[in-house]
Amino acid sequence: MTKQPQFHRIRRLPPYVFAEVNQMKAAARAAGRDIVDLGMGNPDGATPAHIVDKLVETVRDGRTHRYSSSKGIPGLRRALAGYYARRFGVKLDADHEVCVTLGSKEGLANLAQAITAPGDTILVPNPSYPIHPYGFIIAGAGLRHVPFGAGVDLMRELAHAAEHSVPAPTAMILNFPSNPTALTADLDFYREAVAFARRHEMFILSDIAYAEIYFEEPPPSILEVEGAFEVAVEFSSLSKTYSMPGWRIGFAAGNRRLIEALTRIKSYLDYGAFTPIQVAAVAALNGPQDCIAEARTLYRQRRDVLVDGLAKAGWPVPRPPATMFCWAPLPAGFESMGSLAFSKLLLEEADVAVSPGIGFGEYGDGHVRMALVENRHRLRQAVRNIKLFLARARGEPLPSEPMIVDPAPSDAAMAS
Fold first, then answer.
1. Is residue 117 included in any domain, yes or no?
2. CA-CA distance, 125 to 55, in Å (whole number)?
3. Is residue 89 part of a domain?
4. Fewest CB atoms less than 10 Å from the CB: which of 180, 213, 351, 371?
5. Is residue 2 part of a domain?
């Protein structure tokens, strides 16, 4: 048999850790088991009606069925600039400092392709959302993984990494509110980051996809900092803010050189999102915003049900200040088994699916990520199952309360 060629870029990508848990989850459901799925950060709410109505209205016009613009239609770029002005007090040039993307994930990966040469060094916090490191790995870069988490001085770690990187880093990734850790950053941190990047002549790629899902102070934008436009570009998405994950619409904003690079490479790769989706995205950004406050309330309620319930079950989990995730340290007695083995055990013994922390980087292995994508009734069910599982595993007396159906109304009923 003739030896087949190797695919170099694919060889640099490890097996997708989440696939193992997903296969187990699919098999359990095929066997008729009721799995409470807290794995993927996939919003379960419907897109607000006024956004859907605008899509339907626009798609009936056959003129919108032609190729669109890879950079995004002018009306949407202006709406994105308007959002930055209202929310952050930041002025954007819609023609030169904004680019529409097919979600923030695509935008970041394509910018990595545009600005990266083989052998470049990129600083990436670890743990982090997989596209943050692997977008650059696919582009041929070398990574410097920077430890990140509660109690870690990230700027100190970035400085240490930059000092000991050869060649010197050309870019670094920031993501606040963070997926998976749910940690946030303030303007003082961003000021330090911008000064650091300017001093080391590197770019910053900032991901703020969860900037509107917060429970305390509104998270800032790095572009609010003086000098940020010299070094930074920021990615976001309508997926979480407006419950539009399947629509695949997002944007990049900031440094003109980086926006130009992204626009140029996208012109070779795509014709932009379907025009009716872009028009509906304008309706999202310029229309009623009460849906965002409602989403925050919903996620806050779910967060409290899960965190309070797990605490009573003997598994203390930090209460996230933002995002739709809980970043949970492995419970006492299970630390040594690692996050992947624990996630499999939790699925098998408690019918609850979570994401193993190792899937977000080696420094995430002591945690699992739980997404708040099930209603409160289902979250209470998950807590009961986990409480029984932990009691059995620890040899404790099983809870005496009856396992009755929770009479609490669903999230949908509460919203209506």
1. yes
2. 37
3. yes
4. 351
5. no
**Contact predicate 368/355, CB 8 Å:** yes
In this structure, what token pair is assigned to residue 315? 């598994």
Query: Of residues 99 and 16, which shows the higher confidence score?
Result: 99
Residues 192 and 328 in one domain: no
Angle at 79 between CA 77 and CA 81, to 5 degrees: 70
Amino acid (one-letter) located at 19:
A
83 plus 221 within the same structural domain: yes
How many domains are there within the chain?
2
DSSP code, position 238: S
Q: Are residues 248 and 122 in the same domain?
A: yes
* Residue where a domain terminates, one of 286, 318, 333: 286
The band of 40, judged by pLDDT with boundaries at 50, 70 and 90, is confident
* pLDDT grade for 411, boundaries at 50, 70 and 90: low
Mean pLDDT over residues 186-214, rounded?
97
- Residue where the block lists tokens 């917060």: 214
Q: What is the DSSP string of 351-386?
A: -EE-EEGGGG-GGGTTEEEEE--S-HHHHHHHHHHH
Q: Count of residues for the chain?
A: 416
The answer as to whether 3 is a domain residue is no
> What whole-number distance in Å separates Cα of residue 240 and Cα of residue 209?
7
Q: Which of 243, 259, 286 is the last residue of a domain?
A: 286
Rounded CA gap, 262 and 208, in Å? 18
Residues 373 and 241 in one domain: no
State pLDDT tens for residues 294-338.
999 999 999 999 999 999 999 999 999 999 999 999 999 999 999
Do the strands 142-147 and 121-126 form a parallel or antiparallel pair, or are they unpaired? Answer: parallel
Whole-angstrom Cα distance, residue 100 to residue 82? 14
Residues 383-393 have a mean pLDDT of 94
Place of tokens 């991901």: 207
For residue 106 the two structure tokens come to 């695509």
Comparing 93-107, 154-168, 396-410, which segment has the lowest mean pLDDT?
A: 396-410
Domain range holding 146? 49-286
Distance of CA 302 to the CA centre of its chain: 18
Confidence of residue 20 (pLDDT cuts 50, 70, 90): confident
Beta-carbon-side half-sphere exposure of residue 99 (alpha carbons within 13 Å): 32
Q: Same domain, yes or no, for 407 and 278?
A: no
